Amino acid sequence: MKSILKFSTAALSLGAALMLGGCGGGGTTTDQMNGGPAPASATGLRALPSAFTTRKAVSYSPFRTATSDAGRATEVITDQQVKDDLDLLVTAGIGLIRIFDSSDKVALRTLRVIQTYNLDIKVMLGIYVNTFEYVTDPATRASIQAGNEDEMARGVTLAKTYPNQVVAVSVGNETMVYWSFVPISTKTMAGYIKTVRDQISQPVTTDDNWVFYAGRSRNAADQAADIFSQIDFASIHTYSIEDAEYSNFADADPAPDWDWQQKGQTNLALRASAMMDAAIGKTKSDYAAVRAYLDKNGRANLPIIIGETGWKAADPSGTGRYKFLGHPANQKMYYSRLLDWAIASRSDAGPKGIVYFEAFDEPWKQSDDNWGLFNVTRQARCAAQSLNPTATWAKDTSKPCDEASALYYVPPVLNTAVTQPSFVIHSEAVTGWPSGMRADAYQAGTFTLGYPLTGDSASGDQAGTLGASHYISLSGFNNTAGYGWGLLWQSSASTPVTANMSNFANGSIRFSVKSAYVGSLRIGISSDTDLGRPVDAFVLVSNGTYGYCNTGTVWCDVSIPLSAFKAASPTLDLRYILTRFSVSDVWSATGNAARTGMPEIRLDNIYWAQ
User: Fold this and answer.
1) Which has the closest alpha carbon to 175: 186, 160, 159?
2) pTM: predicted TM-score of the whole model, two decimal places
3) Edge to edge, what strands does the sheet with 484-491 contain?
4) Per residue in 325-368, pLDDT tens?
5) Chain Cα centroid distance, residue 341
């Protein structure tokens, strides 16, 4: 959640009254003297409720239809929808939910439903505060601060109104880790936590990435003094699936990535299991780093729960980021290992509770969706099905649940390198696209592709003639896409076949163009990589660069060295080329003014040259 909330004057007045007159706990959590570190026997902590150690827990949000962050503001949520959701969770044996805010729309409604229907569900209530310290406009800054006060007031009210349901309160979500979308200083956050804790009796924490809690993020030296003296337990976030590509450190000593590829396991039938074992190992390692840091800083008695961790059941990224990771079977394997650890941790030094992220898919997350134990239509995925095999709920059967179907790393196929001096995409000698290739628009209906047309041709066409001039025409552009337009040539196979263009490393991509198109064009290629993460490489051509011209009266011969594409995207791998050639105008990339019409662009003689 990254939106800035808006608040009414009446709500703000309520918030001010609660800030001044609420009664509750008070004091600090560590009995620290003169600002120094607390001893391991500090007595100020409120006991962690047994719900964390005895119940399965998940994060819960009820949004179903919103397809954007802004769309959540207008989505209508009903009590019956929430009741249906919670019934599913009870059927799955889940007895604790984490809610991210204290809004009337979600938090109040959920608590009211739990109480009204006497559901056996406890709640870790969230208080969502926004960043203001880096906002320069005074009016906006003041509005955000007032909104934060109002949100805290609502959270305090809910914790007091529903004391039998709300077992803990978390103020702030991922506000202090270095990559936070809502960065808030530790001193400000400490003040927020104290404001809430002084008015309620439940234990209080702040949810943040494990890197923050392990002292490896910004303001690390201030954490013990500012935050740890205000919380009753630490709630940490850890996502080994997100750390599969990179370490989660930026301003501290880097740590090695976990070995998600498991290339050492040559028996492919066992590689998925080895990867998921390594994934839970990474989660345990993150926890251990936090435990060690807290112990070193005099907080050995501070309990730790994992407030968020999860695994994607599909890859919605559009980039192939989870190509070897996101599958319901893998999600089930991770969740199973997580539950085993949770049970074992009740009697050892592990986390005192684990909150799984999340209960249901939420389409508004778009490329970051598909974390749910249930999909958006409330069908139980493999992991949820395993919690209650005899339940009569609707099941997601789109993909199999057995471990043999789980994803694992498979390197891309390395095809024989192209050895001819040129690789032709369009020329006078070919009446169709090269074998195994097709042309695709970025979005249907954004322009008209004419191919092949006759009556014009670039001079000196490198592949000869068919007896008539052939060219490609791009025209009829409309602005339905909103961002611009684009066309790419790629493999026509359902599973894309790459081209090994490694022999062209010192060569160039060439094409002829005739147009009066105003502004730059973006020329691109893309490749797969050893990690299975496709990468795009784009070069802008404007009047006078690489031979490009837009006079509209003559053909211009463009030649872009492959080194320019490598410079644009160093991870581009010429051994695994996916998009052989693309031409586009995406306003945000070219800097061109958005438009609703375009002069015709004629292309000819498109090829790679060694």
Assistant:
1) 186
2) 0.81
3) 437-441, 484-491, 581-586, 521-527, 535-541
4) 999 999 999 999 999 999 888 767 799 999 999 999 999 999 99
5) 25
